[in-house]
UniProtKB/TrEMBL annotation:
Keyword Membrane found: yes
Keywords: Membrane, Transmembrane, Transmembrane helix
Pfam families: Lipase_GDSL_2
Organism listed in the record: Pseudonocardia asaccharolytica DSM 44247 = NBRC 16224
The protein's name in its UniProt record: SGNH hydrolase-type esterase domain-containing protein
Annotated InterPro entries: SGNH_hydro (IPR013830), SGNH_hydro_sf (IPR036514)
UniProt domain SGNH hydrolase-type esterase: residue ranges: 254-491
């Protein structure tokens, strides 16, 4: 007789509606809701912060594409980070949600690829290629961010699942009837944990997609009002043209502001109209360097100079127009070194100093925001200046001089008290001014290091510190002097000594 083959019973098929009903029931569970909220409101910011920027090259420039660190605000601008890691907001690109694009630019490179944007035959194609490259870079970052969010969600789901199993074991330990075995507990929990994980992943990815859509919409809406790449990241770099005839006989030069022009010092014999207009002294940094090195150093510094009006552009001093200092540098034949002192005038340092003298408390957000704005603008112009110096014909050694602090935090003397009727400076105000000066110096140092320039840090005896070790007193002019807070003759000599130590030996 033929034996009838016995069929194994097929496992019961789960109906799609039953599966959907299980998900809906799980969605009403408070542990699942808590997990979803954690993954969306903490997981997405964590994914944004942990996803590394993507490196791309477009128009001959190295750019990192990513997203700025999330904040608690509902909307915010995209961000541009330049030399010195200064963060510049791009107000035209305002994005809702946590995905706000960020571009990180290194030193601007002048090369054939960058010049294509100015070539009439290549301008349109070059800009289209740049846009495509930037878009692809951000999409690549977005995809890595999604993978990071999935990993964060799975990790959070695993931790939540362990907590739920531990809670179930605790409940089992309190009942009198027979306890469930480990296999039974896992069988009961597996479906619940799976549904919880699926819901958390679905919610996280939907929220990530919504954030991406809002970032795309905000970026496209902002770019619609930008007609060129320069509108977004600044204008094309144009270095100052050489000014005047060729100049011979100088080994070095000093460019900068009133600190190195040494306002208030003895007059220069046979001074030129530019020397008089710029208030250059006979014991300026250039003159002291020349004496220390036994060589000729040209003084191009000018009182009141900034990067845009003084170093990279002409400066008006009374009825005298002083040519751009960088333009004059280019005409010095045989130039071996250049010393640069710049910054306080660009920031309007006298404004903050006067305000802190007069106000009972100068640590308000309004003036701090104004300082941050001016510092960001200085960082942008400083990058242009560094590029100019790096392209000087003679390729001289460049030394960037940092800014000095005027007071020690414990300063207590007439110079810190100020004139009668003002609040004066206390420890909190001096520490605030020192912190802002440190922010300026950070940009000065960072930019110099990126271009391989040297950095001089003059150690001057501050006001209110009493006589220095050599009994010469402070190296800065006090409030009673015609030019407060500027170096004295001894201070100028100390600055020259700090600079001379960094200079390469002359032939």
């Amino acid at each position: 007789m033929l034996r009838t083959a016995q069929r194994r019973p097929e496992p019961p098929r789960r109906h799609p509606r039953r599966h959907l009903g299980g998900l809906l029931r799980e969605l009403r569970s408070w542990p699942t809701l808590l997990l979803i909220a954690l993954c969306v409101f903490a997981g997405i910011p964590a994914a944004v912060a942990l996803t590394p920027n993507q490196e791309i090259v477009t128009l001959g420039q190295h750019i990192s594409v990513g997203a700025r660190t999330p904040t608690l605000s509902v909307a915010g601008p995209a961000q541009l980070v330049q030399i010195g890691n200064t963060e510049l907001d791009i107000p035209r690109l305002r994005v809702y949600g946590p995905l706000r694009p960020q571009l990180v630019l290194g030193p601007v490179q002048r090369n054939a690829a960058a010049a294509e944007v100015l070539d009439p035959d290549r301008t349109r194609q070059a800009r289209e290629d740049a846009t495509t490259t930037l878009t692809n870079g951000f999409l690549r970052w977005y995809a890595f961010g999604a993978l990071g969010l999935v990993a964060i969600t799975l990790a959070a789901s695993a931790i939540a699942g362990c907590i739920r199993i531990l809670a179930l074991l605790r409940r089992q330990s309190r009942i009198d009837r027979a306890h469930l075995s480990i296999a039974e507990i896992w069988h009961r929990s597996a479906g619940t944990l799976g549904r919880m994980t699926v819901l958390a992943l679905t919610a996280s990815l939907l929220a990530w997609g919504a954030c991406g859509a809002m970032a795309y919409q905000g970026t496209v809406r902002g770019l619609a009002h930008i007609s060129s790449l320069s509108d977004l990241v600044g204008t094309y770099h144009v270095s100052p043209a050489p000014v005047g005839p060729k100049v011979f006989g100088y080994t070095g030069a000093v460019i900068g502001d009133s600190r190195v022009a040494r306002v208030g010092g003895p007059p220069i014999p046979d001074a030129t109209p530019a020397d008089l207009a710029c208030e250059r002294s006979a014991d300026s940094l250039a003159r002291e360097l020349g004496r220390l090195l036994t060589t000729q150093v040209r003084n191009l510094a000018c009182s009141g100079a900034t990067i845009t009006e003084g170093l990279r552009g002409p400066q008006q001093r009374g009825d005298q127009t002083v040519p751009a200092q960088v333009g004059l540098l280019k005409q010095i034949d045989g130039l071996r070194f250049v010393v640069v002192a710049i910054g306080p005038n660009d920031l309007g340092w006298a404004d903050f100093l006067s305000y802190c003298y007069g106000a009972p408390d100068c640590t308000d957000n309004l003036t701090q925001g104004e300082f941050d704005y001016r510092l960001a603008a200085f960082d942008r112009e400083y990058g242009n200046l560094l590029q100019d110096l790096g392209e000087l014909p003679e390729r001289p050694q460049v030394v960037i001089m940092t800014s000095y602090d005027v007071f020690d935090p414990d300063a207590d003397c007439p110079d810190s008290h100020g004139p009668p009727g003002v609040a004066g400076l206390d420890r909190a105000k001096i520490e605030l001014l020192s912190a802002r000066n440190a922010a300026l110096n950070s940009i000065l140092r960072s930019g110099a290091e990126k271009y391989g320039f040297d950095v001089a840090r003059p150690g001057l005896a501050q006001l209110c510190t009493g006589p220095a070790g050599d009994a010469l007193g402070p190296d800065l002019q006090g409030l009673a002097a015609p030019h407060p807070f500027h170096p004295t003759g001894v201070g100028s000599l100390r600055m020259a000594a700090a600079t001379a130590r960094l200079l390469e030996p002359l032939p």
